Amino acid sequence: MNAHSQPPAAAAEPAPLIDPFGRAISYVRVSVTDRCDFRCVYCMSEHMTFLPRRDLLTLEELDRLCSAFIARGTKRLRITGGEPLVRHDVMTLFRALSRHLASGALEELTLTTNGSQLARFASELVDCGVKRVNVSLDTLDPGRFRALTRTGDHARVMAGVDAALAAGLRVKLNAVALKGVNEDEFVPLVRFANERGMDMTFIEVMPLGELEGPDRIDQYLPMREVRDRLAETFTLTETDYRTGGPARYMRVSETGGRVGFITPLTHNFCESCNRVRVTCTGTLYMCLGQEDAADLRAPLRESADDAPLVAAIEAAIARKPKGHDFVIDRATQGPAVSRHMSMTGG
Ligand code: SAM
Ligand code: SF4
Fold this sequence. Notes:
alpha/beta; TIM Barrel; 12-stranded mixed β-sheet; 11 helices; 14 strands; binds S-adenosylmethionine
């Protein structure tokens, strides 16, 4: 066979990163800032000390880091924080990353946001190839919203959600289920979301980060109770719908929509974990609930060549733990993991 008769060489699919338990790691969440315009009571203390800006990866470094993961088989990338949309010039990063969507190397680029800046950025996100966003919304009541977020403006978030929908983004709402705080709103939240074509997902409060204020044991509500509460009003049926994350979804007959449940505490979702997380300083956490981490900033800064960075990623995945062991009970004092959710991102 001469050279001309050979088919063109197909671009080699990168070998996926496989952890010691045979799980392919194809989903990376990257926190682009630890800062936020809100101070949600379960996430941050009122007077947070944020990282010095020099410790943060630059947008170019974040692009290199994400691109290295994509070169090693990452298919889904979620940008988070802190509040990702308060990072100065963050659209430069989205625009840069969109090249991997265009090439087909990346299947999905998404973000988790508190919605405060969405009205401003929704259509630009669509231009960058973002199709789906998660917006955190724990309550429909403006006064309660202010108390929960300490600084948040409910109307502004609502305008953000409307703008996202108008721009054609698929929106999922996430609420942390908090005993004695928003438990009377589970049904209204599902109605609100489903009527607008959005999925509604509830999350158990996780013991991350030292907080002043209410004890999480007092706020903790197992998902089973959330589901039982919803089942008093709605007919819920199991679905096998998945979005690549840890949520399990049920169909709500009355609304025609879906409700999701994320149960880090009561249901161990570790067996099927395909995710890792990177902080805004370039620390890679192989598990949200474990302390072991790998520094990716040093190899990033050590060389303009990505080889040391890729080697550090591979070495870290080779020690991804089997799972986490979150416990919320009265015998366990303090958080299971001392870092805040705003550091590792949601
Ligand atoms: N600022 C963005 C937002 O609020 O959507 C993105 C980052 S935030 C840390 C991501 C998600 O983590 C949010 O849905 C938030 O409700 C959730 N979260 C924060 N602290 C939590 C905790 N202790 N337990 C469970 N979820 C938490
Ligand atoms: Fe900010 Fe999101 Fe944490 Fe609330 S949950 S304080 S919006 S990072």
